[in-house]
C-alpha cells in the first residue's frame, strides 16, 4: 500500500467505527493490565467471563494480594495456563505495591519488567489506558499487516515497526483496535470475508474470497482456469 491507500484504509475503518475500544472488560488501569495479561493464548470472551466476578472484588494490586493466589485461581481456572498466569499476576501485584505505590506505570520498560508482561501487553495498556500511539501486534494484526500489505514482517516486532512508520495521523491511537477488529471479524485466518470487506480494493491479498462460501484456494484455481481458456 502507498501512503494515500493507507490513509484511505484507516479512514474507512474509522468511518464505520469512530471510537474503537478493546473488547476486554475492565474498570480501571490495573484491571486492564490484569485482563490483558490473562488474555495471552486465550480469547477476550473467555477472559471476560472469568474476570467479571474477579473484578467485582479486586480493584487494586493490594486487593489482589488480599485475595491470594488460590483465590485468584478459583476465578480464572477456566482460562488456559491459569496456574502460571496466577503466579505472574500475584508477583506483579506485589511489585506494583512495593515499587510503584500500587499504581500502574505509564512506561513500557517499567511495564515489561513486571512478571508476565511482554511488549504486546505493555503496548495495549499504554494505548488503552494512557492514549499512547503504540501498536500492539497480536495474531490478528500480524495477519492483517502482512495479508493486506499494510505492514509486512516476519516477526511481530517487524510488523510493529512497520506500523509505527506507516500509520498516519489522525489514526495512530485507534489503529491497532481497528486492525484487531478487522482481523477478528472480517479478515479471518482461514477464510477472509472479502465479499463484505470495506477496504477490499485497497488490499494486496491476491487470493481474495469474493463470494460467500468460497475458499481462497478455490478462487485461485477458478481464476487460473478462466485465464487458461482460449
What does this structure look like?
With 230 residues, the chain is mostly helical. It folds into 3 domains: 67 residues, Orthogonal Bundle (Endonuclease Iii, domain 2); 102 residues, Hypothetical protein, domain 2 (Endonuclease III, domain 1, Orthogonal Bundle), CATH 1.10.340.30; 35 residues, no CATH class. 58% of the residues lie in helices and 0% in strands. The protein has 12 helices and no strands. The longest helix has 19 residues. The chain starts with a helix and ends with a helix. The C terminus is likely disordered.
Question: Helices and strands in order, then pairings?
Answer:
Blueprint (H helix, E strand, L loop, with lengths): L2 H14 L12 H10 L5 H14 L3 H7 L1 H8 L5 H19 L7 H5 L6 H12 L8 H10 L7 H11 L8 H11 L30 H13 L2
Q: Which CATH top level class of the largest domain fits? A: Mainly Alpha
Major beta sheet, specifics?
none
Structural class: mainly alpha
Please state the overall shape, judged from the principal axes of the Cα atoms: elongated
Tally the beta strands: 0
What is the straight-line distance between the termini? 33 Å
Radius of gyration: 20 Å
The total number of structural domains is: 3
Helices and strands, in order, run as HHHHHHHHHHHH
Helix coverage percent: 55-70%
CATH superfamily of the largest domain: Hypothetical protein, domain 2
CATH architecture of the largest domain: Orthogonal Bundle
Strand content: under 5%
pLDDT averaged residue by residue: 92
Q: What is the helix tally? A: 12
Which topology of the largest domain does CATH recognise?
Endonuclease III, domain 1
Which segments are poorly predicted (pLDDT under 50) over 5 or more consecutive residues?
Answer: 218-230
Amino acid at each position: 500500500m502507498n501512503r494515500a491507500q493507507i490513509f484511505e484504509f484507516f479512514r474507512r475503518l474509522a468511518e464505520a467505527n469512530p471510537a474503537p475500544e478493546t473488547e476486554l472488560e475492565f474498570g480501571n488501569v490495573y484491571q486492564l493490565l490484569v485482563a490483558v495479561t490473562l488474555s495471552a493464548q486465550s480469547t477476550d470472551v473467555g477472559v471476560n467471563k472469568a474476570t467479571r466476578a474477579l473484578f467485582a472484588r479486586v480493584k487494586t494490586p493490594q486487593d489482589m494480594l488480599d485475595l491470594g493466589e488460590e483465590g485468584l485461581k478459583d476465578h480464572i481456572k477456566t482460562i488456559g495456563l491459569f496456574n502460571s498466569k496466577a503466579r505472574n499476576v500475584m508477583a506483579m501485584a506485589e511489585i506494583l505495591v512495593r515499587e510503584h505505590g500500587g499504581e500502574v506505570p505509564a512506561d513500557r520498560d517499567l511495564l515489561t519488567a513486571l512478571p508476565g508482561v511482554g511488549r504486546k501487553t505493555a503496548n495495549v495498556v499504554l494505548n488503552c489506558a494512557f492514549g499512547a500511539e503504540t501498536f500492539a501486534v497480536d495474531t490478528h494484526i500480524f495477519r492483517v499487516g502482512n495479508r493486506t500489505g499494510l505492514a509486512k514482517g516476519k516477526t511481530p516486532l517487524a510488523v510493529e515497526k512497520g506500523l509505527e512508520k506507516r500509520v498516519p495521523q489522525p489514526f495512530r491511537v485507534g489503529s491497532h483496535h481497528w486492525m484487531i477488529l478487522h482481523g477478528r471479524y472480517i479478515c479471518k485466518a482461514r477464510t477472509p470475508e472479502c465479499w463484505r470487506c470495506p477496504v477490499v480494493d485497497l488490499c494486496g491479498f491476491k487470493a481474495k474470497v469474493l463470494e460467500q462460501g468460497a475458499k481462497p484456494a478455490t478462487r485461485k484455481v477458478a481464476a487460473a482456469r478462466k485465464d487458461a481458456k482460449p
